[in-house]
Design a protein that fits this description.
Strand content: 15-25%
CATH topology of the largest domain: Quinone Oxidoreductase, Chain A, domain 1
Distance between the termini: 38 Å
Largest sheet: 7 strands, mixed
Structural class: alpha/beta
Number of domains: 2
Bound molecules: NADP nicotinamide-adenine-dinucleotide phosphate
CATH architecture of the largest domain: Alpha-Beta Complex
CATH superfamily of the largest domain: Medium-chain alcohol dehydrogenases, catalytic domain
Helix content: 25-40%
Radius of gyration: 22 Å
Shape: globular
């Protein structure tokens, strides 16, 4: 790995130099183990500890197939999907790998007793497989996490609809929380030159997801002036949703759980912020019964902040705990757009508020190729900024995932893979200087 890192840090290394680098036989990677999927049996989800299930292992370099690329990973990030993987919920990810492995001879590579996880990376292309023309060794890249086969017409218009759609590093092996990663070459996108490796690795999954969910016609199709209620507005998805609403000329109504997070939202430019803990909303009276009076109180508070208007869009992901309130507070004809159910996926809402008020519920999941590319372009143009708050070395990924699981983090949490320290990889210092305040907004902000 030393030779690879030296080449990456050499200012004049050429594509030929990278192509001539010998590949190691193995690399360090964060894994879960197939023989440990019952590790947390009998524990509540919140008591399952990713520090126990995530391992740093030396694993074999996978064979490179047609249309694929092997990337030296400088940095990665923790996404909530890695938290789900680490606590084996809602099911162990080995089920995905087994199914993928049955697809063909080459896909068998993915079905292993360990799963190398991680759905973000920034780094440098080391090798490309047959049929790859757009990328070459030495290219500095980020990767989005959509893996598709495109053999069925179902996915030709919107690649998320491909029947063989998988999230790389979650439903495939050889993910980004490692020193090397295997991707399909059409996952690659240019690394924005003004960002460090760790900043560049922070955004791919959440920014693309928020972009489809909110901006794309496949999601809520936000327009100028829309009021958008954003749950977890300083979190992974929410910190990008807040920026997208502001950049698109809308008004974010940010919901967070403490004053520190409220301040982060204000620093991004949001004016309407609700501290759900300080205001004490209790949408559920008990495990089975919701409290519509609390929905009303929440709706009234939103109107106070918007000058009497309801929200056009609700950016949903907490799920069970908030969904009833989300449906209630959406304006007549508005849209609840959901991509997750962190607090439980059996939702309950009062359907009268949906049909009588002609509201829509839209399901959204990651982003298609084009949406991911457009989302990355916004980062490269400095219109949306990474919301990295902290980085950890690869060996401490378990702790990083623990922090995200316990909601102890802000924005995004980064992981240094081959990058020996923070702050490396900037190629356009001048452009960076123009955005440095926005890039540092989340840095060093820790939970009280
Ligand atoms: N389908 C997809 O493509 C996709 C993509 C990305 C993420 N996701 C899913 O989306 C969810 C959020 O991901 P993320 O990266 O944004 O995670 P995150 O960084 O942990 O942020 C989520 C935020 O939501 C808020 N929240 C959590 N539980 C809540 C509850 N019960 N009620 C109200 N607010 C709550 C918290 O903010 P406050 O404490 O400040 O309120 C938390 O910081 C996860 O389940 C993840 O798996 C799905």
């Amino acid at each position: 790995m030393k030779e690879i890192l030296t080449a990456i840090q050499a200012p004049d290394a050429t594509a030929a130099d990278f192509a001539a680098l010998p590949l190691p036989e193995s690399y360090r990677a964060i894994t879960v183990h197939k023989d440990e999927t019952d590790l947390f049996e009998g524990l509540a989800g919140c008591d399952k500890d990713p520090r126990k299930s995530l391992h740093l292992d030396e694993v074999a370099v996978p064979e490179l197939g047609p249309g694929e690329a092997l990337v030296a990973v400088m940095a990665s990030s923790v996404n909530y999907n890695s938290v789900w993987t680490s606590i084996f919920e809602p099911l162990p990810t080995f089920a995905f790998l087994e199914r993928y492995g049955k697809r063909n001879e080459l896909a068998k590579r993915h079905d292993l007793p360990y799963h190398v996880i991680g759905s973000d990376l920034s780094g440098v292309v080391l090798r490309t497989g047959p049929g790859v023309n757009a990328w070459k060794p030495g290219d500095e890249v980020v990767a989005h996490c959509l893996s598709v086969e495109l053999e069925s017409a179902d996915g030709h218009d919107d690649t998320m609809l491909d029947p063989e759609q998988r999230i790389w590093g979650f439903e495939t092996n050889f993910g980004g929380l490692a020193e090397l990663a295997l991707v399909k070459s059409n996952q690659l996108m240019p690394k924005p030159g003004h960002l460090t490796w760790e900043e560049a690795a922070a955004s791919g999954l959440v920014n693309s997801t928020a972009y489809r969910q909110l901006v794309s016609r496949n999601g809520a199709g936000m327009k100028v002036g829309d009021n958008v209620l954003i749950w977890g507005a300083s979190g992974g998805l929410g910190s990008y949703a807040t920026q997208l609403v502001l950049a698109g000329g809308g008004t974010p109504v940010c919901v967070v759980s403490n004053e520190q997070k409220a301040e982060i939202c204000r620093s991004m430019g949001a004016e309407a912020v609700i501290d759900r803990n300080a205001e004490g909303y209790t949408f559920w009276k008990d495990e089975h019964t919701q409290d519509p009076r609390e929905w009303k109180r929440f709706g009234k508070r939103i109107r106070e902040l918007t000058g009497g208007e309801d929200v056009d869009i609700v950016f949903e992901h907490p799920g069970r705990e908030t969904f009833g309130a989300s449906v209630y507070v959406t304006r007549k004809g508005g849209t609840v757009v959901t991509c997750a159910s962190t607090s439980g996926y059996q939702h309950q809402y009062d359907n009268r508020y949906l049909w009588m008020s002609l509201k829509r519920i839209v399901g959204s999941h990651f982003a298609n190729y084009r949406e991911a590319w457009e989302a990355n372009r916004l980062i490269a143009k400095g219109k949306i900024h990474p919301t990295l708050s902290r980085t950890y070395p690869l060996a401490e990924t378990g702790q990083a995932a623990y922090d995200v699981h316990r909601n102890l983090h802000q924005g995004k949490v980064g992981i240094l893979a081959l990058a020996p320290e923070e702050g490396l990889g900037v190629r356009d210092a001048e452009f960076r200087a123009r955005h440095v305040d926005a890039l540092n907004r989340f840095r060093g902000v820790q939970e009280d």
